[in-house]
Each structure stands twice: as C-alpha cells, then as structure tokens.
C-alpha cells in the first residue's frame, strides 16, 4: 500500500469514527433528556400530592422501600408521611420483630396501626411472647386493625393472656382471628372479655372455638364473616350482633364438627330481631341444629340473601314443622335471592314474595326436585309464586328435553297477558348449562317457542359452559 492509499484509509476511518461519535453523542443527549424528564416528574408534584399517591399505592414495608429507592426527594417524602407506616405485615418469628413494630409505631405518630401477623414454618415462643406483649399491652391504644393467621394452641394462649388484661383497645375497629384447622378443639381460658374497650365493626373468623362469641365485644359489629364453624355456632354469633349489616357464613373443606359444638343453646329470648342486617350469606349450613333459633329470628331489613343448605343426612333428626316460615316471611325488604336447589327450596320461595332477582343452582341427580320447582314457578289461575320476579337465572349441569319443555311452559306463563294485571312480567331469563352442547337436545318446536318469547320482549340469555370460558348462544 502506497502512502496515498494509506492516507485515504485513515481519512475513511476517521470519517466512520466521527459518524459513530455523532451517533453516540445524540444517543447520550436523548438519554440525558429522558433522565431530566424523569427527575422533573418525580419532583414536579407537590409533596402533599405525592404523599397522597404513595398512601394510596403503598400496601406495606416492601412497597414503601421500593418507593423510597426512586430518588432522594421521594425518600424524604416517605420518611415524613406517617400514614405510610400504618400497615404492618410480618411473621410471628420475624427477626427483630419488636423493633420493627415499634419503628412503625414511632413513624406513624398518632395514626392507628393496621397489623397482620402470619405464621412461619416454626414459631418460637421466645420470639412470639415479646412481640405479642408489645403489641397487646404496650401499644393497644394505637391499634385500628388486627389480623392473626394460623392461630395454634401456643399462639392463642399468648393472645388470650395478653388481650384479657386491663389494657384497652379504644381505636380497634377490625379484628380477624383465623385459627389453624387442627386448633378446633381449643378451649377458652380467659375469665375477662377479650379486647376490652374496643368498638369492633368488622369481625372475621375461621375455625373459631365454641364460646368465643361470649368473650368478644360484638355489640357494634356491622360486618361479620365466619368460615368453618357449625351452623349453630354461626347463629350464636349472629344473634349477639344487634347492629350487624352484612353476615357471611361458609364451611371450608377442612372443617369438621367437634363434639363440643353439639351442645344446645340455652336461655334464648322469645324473639330476636336484627333490624340493620341487609346482606346474609349462608352456605352449606345444616339447619337442623339451629331450627329453634331460626323460628325466633327476624330480619326485616334484609335485601340480599345467599342461601345454601346442606342436604339432609339420613341420621339427622327432623326439625320443627315449617320452622323456616316466620323467618323468611319476616324478610319484607328482600329483593335478591341466590340459592342452591334442594328439598327445602320450594318451601322457602313460597315465603319470599318480594324477590325481584333470583339465581338458582341445580346440582346433578335432582331432576324430580328441579321439575317440581319449575312447575311451582309456572303461573296458573291459582298459583302466583314470586309475583314480583323480573330476572331469573338457572344454572344446570345438564338439561333434558322434558325439562326444557317445562322451562318453556314456565316462561310462557310468566309472559302471558292474562297475568299482567296482577303480577309482574318476567323480563330476563338466563340458562347456564355445563356438561354438553344444549343445542343437541333442542327440538325445532322448542326453538320456535323460545324465539317467540324473545320476539315478545323476553331477554333470553343461554350460556353453555362446556367450552371455557363458555359461550353465549344466540337464537
């Protein structure tokens, strides 16, 4: 290569390098502009506004740490916003648990704390005892919400020992006691009321032991959520909550009845009225043990009822005749019913004339009960069951041609002009079928009848759940 060629090579290399430098400088300028923009965005809002945003999005220690790491400006705002330190979630055996709790207590200043405690693989009494002592005896005056998970015998003995003292919980409005499934045989040892001085509005229970309802302050409860306790025990809680607005009761798969829970309820008043209860969710409950309670319980303000009774067992003793009648007839404001079909459903809906919206789930193997129910819902000159019903949903695993014929007859009766003067037309009907293509069982005459109902103004929704997430069929 001669000198001239070498000069040209150097010039071309310099030109290429210059172009690359220009590109890199432009890229650097864009990144710097983006960085400045980000810095401007983290600082452009007033501290008060950022504090409100952080308060809305921050759910605990981890969220707070992430927010603090963005920039020094955000870190300063986090450290000077007391409300960001009010939510505490930790394990019972957390290292330095007491220091962690008191750190939040100091930073929260006078704002009440929301504390949630979880169990780890191994819970050490040496770590748990000082934590619960600090929580329940040193700062009970500054607690708004308490949630205990996986309560076993050791945990409960410590909670009981520290919460039946003379310490007051004046700001405590929410309490959740979630016992472990193997702790159902625990017994109460407290001689004084637990969590004294509190005005608990929201109470959540799981696997609670009998007798607990006598030790908790229930007079101000408005929301009661009870899982995995017997129907009798659930009712004992309910009747002690005169201001309850929403009550939910449900059995978890891990629950089993304990011998202690079969004891009868004594010294019942002649009538129990819960004037503020608006929502009742009762699932898989055996009604036989609480028949005497149901007879004297009145719910005049209830508007939504989710009712699922467990099937009667062969060994179950029969309850009093029509013990549900006055209970359901007292629900003069009831508008929404969600229930599971069983032997008592027909009896129940006869006593609920004010229902506007109903959803009925039908399990397999009860075709005769289903047909009886649909015939009961079919209007005749003498039968006006559910006269105010406007929307009906039926959920089935399968449906036969005979059952479809009876359903169509029911729909036609509730859309007939001759009944419009004294009852309300059914406006919406939803049919959900789970196990097969329902169009396979339709006959042409049935399709014609359904189309005629749609043409007459009925909103007809037919949903097939066989293909997830399901499909809606259009006539």
From TrEMBL:
<feature type="coiled-coil region">
    <location>
        <begin position="14"/>
        <end position="41"/>
    </location>
</feature>
<dbReference type="InterPro" id="IPR001810">
    <property type="entry name" value="F-box_dom"/>
</dbReference>
<dbReference type="InterPro" id="IPR036047">
    <property type="entry name" value="F-box-like_dom_sf"/>
</dbReference>
<keyword id="KW-0175">Coiled coil</keyword>
<feature type="domain" description="F-box">
    <location>
        <begin position="44"/>
        <end position="89"/>
    </location>
</feature>
<protein>
    <recommendedName>
        <fullName>F-box domain-containing protein</fullName>
    </recommendedName>
</protein>
<dbReference type="Pfam" id="PF12937">
    <property type="entry name" value="F-box-like"/>
</dbReference>
């Amino acid at each position: 290569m001669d000198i001239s060629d070498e000069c040209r090579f150097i010039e071309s290399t310099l030109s290429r390098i210059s172009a690359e430098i220009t590109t890199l400088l432009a890229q650097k300028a864009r990144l710097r502009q983006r960085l400045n923009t980000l810095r401007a965005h983290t600082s452009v809002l007033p501290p008060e506004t950022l504090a409100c945003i952080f308060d809305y999005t921050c759910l605990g220690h981890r969220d707070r740490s992430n927010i603090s790491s963005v920039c020094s400006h955000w870190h300063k705002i986090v450290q000077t916003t007391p409300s960001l330190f009010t939510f505490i979630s930790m394990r019972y055996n957390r290292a330095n648990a007491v220091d962690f709790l008191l750190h939040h207590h100091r930073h929260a200043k006078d704002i009440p704390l929301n504390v949630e405690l979880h169990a780890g693989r191994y819970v050490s009494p040496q770590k748990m005892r000082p934590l619960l002592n600090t929580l329940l005896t040193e700062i009970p005056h500054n607690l708004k919400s308490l949630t205990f998970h996986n309560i076993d015998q050791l945990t409960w003995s410590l909670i009981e020992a520290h919460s039946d003292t003379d310490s007051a919980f004046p700001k405590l409005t929410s309490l959740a006691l979630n016992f472990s499934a193997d702790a159902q045989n625990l017994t109460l040892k407290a001689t004084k009321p637990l969590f004294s001085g509190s005005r608990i509005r929201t109470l959540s229970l799981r696997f609670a032991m009998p007798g607990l309802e006598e030790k908790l302050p229930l007079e101000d409860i408005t929301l009661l959520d009870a899982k995995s306790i017997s129907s009798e025990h659930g009712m004992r809680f309910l009747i002690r909550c005169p201001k309850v607005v929403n009550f939910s009761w449900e059995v978890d798969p891990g629950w089993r009845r304990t011998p202690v829970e079969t004891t009868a309820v004594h010294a019942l008043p002649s009538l129990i009225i819960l004037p503020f209860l608006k929502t009742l969710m009762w699932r898989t409950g055996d009604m036989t043990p609480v028949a005497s309670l149901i007879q004297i319980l009145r719910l005049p303000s209830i508007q939504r009822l989710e009712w699922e009774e467990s099937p009667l067992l062969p060994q179950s003793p029969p309850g009093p005749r029509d013990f549900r009648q006055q209970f359901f007839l007292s629900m003069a404001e009831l508008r929404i019913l969600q229930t599971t079909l069983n032997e008592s459903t027909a009896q129940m809906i006869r006593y609920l004339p004010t229902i506007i919206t109903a959803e009925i789930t039908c399990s397999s193997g009860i075709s005769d009960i289903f047909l009886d129910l649909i015939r009961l819902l079919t209007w005749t000159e003498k039968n006006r069951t559910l006269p105010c019903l406007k929307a009906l949903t039926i959920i089935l695993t399968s449906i036969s041609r005979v059952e479809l014929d009876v359903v169509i007859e029911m729909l036609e009766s509730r859309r007939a002009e001759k009944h419009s003067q004294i009852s309300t037309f059914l406006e919406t009907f939803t049919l959900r079928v789970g196990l097969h293509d329902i169009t396979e069982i339709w006959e042409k005459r049935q399709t014609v009848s359904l189309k005629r109902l749609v043409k007459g103004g009925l909103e007809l929704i037919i949903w097939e759940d066989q293909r997830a997430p399901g499909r809606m069929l259009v006539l």
